[in-house]
Amino acid sequence: MLLRHGRSTSNTAHTLAGRSPGVELDDRGREQAQAIVARLADVVIEEIVHSPLLRCEQTVEPLARARGLTPVVEHRLVEVDYGEWTGRELKVLLEEPLWKIVQQHASAAVFPGGEGLAQVQARAVAAVREHDARLAELHGRDVVWVACSHGDVIKSVLADALGAHLDGFQRIVAEPASISVVRYTSTRPYVLKMNDTGADLSGVNVPPASGDGARAEVSGSVPGGEVRL
């Protein structure tokens, strides 16, 4: 489950927070973080992983407390290093020539003094896949786990899961506190939900294991309608 952090003080200020210290959830963001507990009440969650930044830590804290889980910090899920763009107003950045490249040719976009979006996708996808494989091996089956990160990071992971080129990742939306769900199998990922801000996510629970411990392939991507091969 790819969870974007709740609404932050930077979101409402319309600035590019990046890795700026001290950016926290605003009042609405704290409400969203608390609401996640109820949204996921019927979902069995084995682990919570999050970006090291404060807004992600605050987003998963209520859920972790409710489940008695100790969140795992994953530095590869950290926000994009926007370099010299960090902290600047979005309306000002719209005038930068690089903005069009970020929107239309993301794979070539490298932020001045920062990192490239292709690097972001590589590190984030590697982290998600490694944690997913680790947890599947640990439990001997597919499990549901939460990865709390940032908008551009989540969109890059979803683009990979969809088999889409990074240049099209801006077509994907990941709102604050939204949840997207990817099921990884031995052959390909299945995207079950994207940008979900609703209240009922019980449909993402993992079906009973087949008994052989294998990570089964599925035909179709609708929870409850899967046919194990």
Tell me the layout of helices and strands.
Blueprint: E1 2-4, H1 9-13, H2 27-39, E2 47-50, H3 54-67, E3 72-73, H4 90-93, H5 97-104, H6 117-139, E4 145-149, H7 151-162, E5 179-184, E6 189-196, E7 218-219, E8 227-228
Parallel strand pairs: 1-4, 2-3, 2-4
Antiparallel strand pairs: 1-5, 5-6, 7-8
Structural notes for this entry:
The chain is of the alpha/beta class and 229 residues long. The chain has a single domain (2-200), classed as Phosphoglycerate mutase-like (Rossmann fold, 3-Layer(aba) Sandwich), CATH 3.40.50.1240. Helix content is 34%, strand content 14%. The chain contains 7 helices and 8 strands; from the N terminus they run βααβαβαααβαββββ. It has helices at 9-13, 27-39, 54-67, 90-93, 97-104, 117-139, 151-162, and strands spanning 2-4, 47-50, 72-73, 145-149, 179-184, 189-196, 218-219, 227-228. The chain has a 6-stranded mixed β-sheet, sandwiched between helices. A two-stranded antiparallel ribbon has the order 7-8. The longest helix is centred in the middle third of the chain and has 23 residues, at 117-139. The radius of gyration is 18 Å and the shape is globular. Residues 210-214 and 218-229 have low confidence and may be disordered.
Q: What's the Cα radius of gyration?
A: 18 Å
- In CATH terms, what is the fold-level topology? Rossmann fold
> What portion of residues belong to β-strands?
5-15%
**In this structure, how is the largest beta sheet organized?**
6 strands, mixed
Strand order in the largest sheet:
3-2-4-1-5-6
Number of helices: 7
CATH architecture: 3-Layer(aba) Sandwich
* Cα separation of the termini: 24 Å
CATH class: Alpha Beta
Which class of secondary structure composition applies to the elements? Answer: alpha/beta
Shape: globular
The helix/strand order is: EHHEHEHHHEHEEEE
Region (Disordered): 1-26, 203-229
InterPro entries: His_Pase_superF_clade-1, His_PPase_superfam, Phosphoglycerate_Mutase, Phosphomutase_MSMEG4193_put
Protein name: Phosphoglycerate mutase family
Organism: Rhodococcus wratislaviensis (Tsukamurella wratislaviensis)
